[in-house]
Amino acid sequence: MNTIPDLKQTVTKYKFSGLWRLMDGYRWQYLIAIISMGLAAVAGSALYILLGKFVDDVLPAANMRQLLPLVSLGLIGLALTQGAFTFIGGRLAAQTAENIARTLRNYLYDHIQQLSFTYHDQSQTGELLQRTTSDVDTMRRMFAEQAIGIGRISLLFVVNFTALLTLNVRLAFISVIIIPIVLMISLFFFFKIGKAYEAFQEQEAVLSNRLQENLTGVRVVKAFARQAYEIEAFDVENREKWGRGRRLTLMHAFYWPTTDMLCGTQMVAAFFFAGVMAVHGEITAGMYVAYVGLVVQIIWPIRNLGRLVADVSTGFVSFGRVQTVIKEIKEPMVEGTAVTADRLHGAVTFDDVHFAYENEKEHALHGISFTVKPGKKIALMGSTGSGKTSLVNLLPRFYECSNGRITLDGVDLKRYPRAFLREQIGIVMQEPFLFSTSIRNNISYGVNHAVTDEEMFAAAKAAAVHEVILSFPDGYETMVGERGVTLSGGQKQRITLARTILCDPGLLILDDATSAVDTETDEVIRFALEKLMQNRTTFIIAHRIQTVMDADLILMLENGRIIQRGTHKELLTQEGTYRQIYDLQSRIEEELQTELGELIIEN
Ligand code: DUT
Ligand code: MG
C-alpha cells in the first residue's frame, strides 16, 4: 500500500490553496494535460487559418492541382494533431483526477479510523459514507472535467483570439462582446448552484443515513411490523431530496437557454458584420472562412466555460464537506512516554475519578476511587445505566476522565500511548461484533502474527466455543455475518471472547461477556478462564452472583457512584443492594431445587 500523505495542511481558509495542495505530486502531470489541450487548440485554429489560406491563395491559383494534395495533407495532419493532443490531455487529466480521488479516499478512511470514540458517538454513519464516496467523486469530476475544461477553454480562447487579431482587429473585438456577460451569468450560477448542491448533498446524506439505519435494524422493523411507517418516513426524506435535486436541474435548465440565446445572437451578429466587411472588400473570402471557424471555436467553448465555472461550485462544496472530516483531530496513538515494561503488571488505581460524555450535562461517573493489586479479579455490579461500561472504557483511554486520576502500574494513564494500552488491555465488549469473514479470521483479528491451530483451539476452548465451531460443516473456516451462517447471541459472545483471549492481554476486561449464555455454559467458561485470569488483572462486569462471588473486590455501582464495596463475604454481612440481589437469586435457586426434589419424589 502507498503511504498516505498528511492532508491536514489542505485545510485552509481558501479553497484554492487547499485544492492546490491536494495536487501534490500530480501537478506536472496535470500541467502537461493542460498544455496538451492547449496544443490541440493551436492545431485547431491553425486548421481554420490554413482553410482560409486555401480559399484565398490555392483555389484561384493556376497550379492548384499541385498544391491541393499538399494542403489536404496539411489539413489532415492538423486534424490528427488536434485529436491526438485532446486524447493525451483528457487521459492525463482523468488519470490525475483518479489518483487524487484515490489518495483522498485512502486518507479519509485512515483518518476516520483514527478519530476518537467521542467523534464516532456523535457522527452518523450515512454522513461519513457520503463524504468518503459521493463527495470524493464530485471532487474527482471537478479535477477530471471542470478544472481541465476551464484550462482548455482559456487556452483555446487565448490562441483563437490571437489568431482573430491577426485576421482583423476590429472583427476580433466585435466577436467577443458577449463574453463578459456570459461570465457574469456563470458567476451568478456559481453561487446559486453551489448553495443548491450543498442542500442536495446534505439531504442525500440524510437519506443514506435512513437507509443504513433501516437495513441495520431491519429485524426490529419487521418484528414491530413498522414497514408502512418506515416506508412513509423514507418517502418524506426522498421527496425532499427529489425537490432539492429538481431545484438544481432547474438552474441548469435556465442556464443553457439563456447562454445559448446570447451566444447565438453574438455569432449571428459577428457573421453579419464580417459578411458586410467581405462585401465591401475589407476582408477576403478566405479570411471570412477562417473567421467563421475561429468564432465558432471561441463562442461555443465560452458557453461551456460558463457551465464549467458554475459546476466547479459543486466540487468546492464537496471539498468543504470533506475538509470538515479532515479537520477533526485524530486521537494521538503513540504519544506518551511511560512505556518502560513491555508488559503491564496490572496494578490499577482510580483516585476520585469523574467523567461525563461530551454534550451530556449529567456526569456518568462521580468520585470513583479504588485500588486493585496486580493479578487480582475485580467485579463490577449495578443496575443498567449505573456506569459500569463507562468505568472500564476509561482504561484503554477510549474516553478521558474529566477530573481525578487513574494510574496503571503506578503511572498516570495519560502518560501511556494509547496504542500500547489497547495492545495490552483486552476488552470483550458488551455488544459482540463479528466481521463478515471466517470464524478463524474473526478469532485471530487482534493479533498481528500468524496463529497456530493449537493457539486458536486453546483460545476457543477457554471461551467454551471450540466444540460449537467444530459442529459447523466448515469448522473454523465457516463464514459468519452477511455472507455466511447466522450465529446465536451466545455463540457470537463466545467467539469475541476467544478473540480477546488469543491476544493474551496483560489486563482483561469482560463487559457482560457471558450475559447471553446459559448458567451452565457460564460456569464452563468461568472454569476455563480461571487459569487465564491467574496473574492477570481482570475486570468482570456481570449480573449473576455466581460469576462475581470469587472476585477479590466487588464494586456495587449506582448512578455513577460506588455504593458498596468489598468481597462476597463482606458484602453478605452488610445490609444493601448486594445482599438483596443475593437473596433474590438464591431464593429462586432454592425454589427450583425444591420443585425439582418434589418432582423426583413424585416419580
Ligand atoms: N451514556 C452516555 N453516552 C454514551 C454511553 C452512556 O451518555 O455513549 C450514559 C448512559 C448512562 C450512563 O452514561 O446514563 C452510564 O452508561 P453505561 O453504559 O456506563 O452503563 P452500564 O452500567 O454499562 O449499563 P448496562 O448494564 O446497561 O450496560
Ligand atoms: Mg454496560
CATH homologous superfamily identity of the largest domain: ABC transporter type 1, transmembrane domain
Question: Helicity range of the residues?
Answer: 55-70%
The share of residues in extended strands comes to 5-15%
Count of discrete structural domains: 2
Structural class: alpha/beta
Mean pLDDT: 88
Distance between the termini: 71 Å
CATH-defined architecture of the largest domain: Up-down Bundle
The number of helical elements comes to: 20
Shape: elongated
> What's the CATH topology name of the largest domain?
ABC transporter transmembrane region fold
Strands, count:
10
The major pleated sheet works out as: 6 strands, mixed
Strand order of the largest sheet: 6-7-8-3-9-10
CATH first level of the largest domain: which class? Mainly Alpha
Uncertain segments of ≥5 residues (pLDDT<50)? none
Bound compounds, each kind once, are: deoxyuridine-5'-triphosphate, magnesium ion
| Rg computed from alpha carbons, rounded to a whole number of angstroms | 36 Å
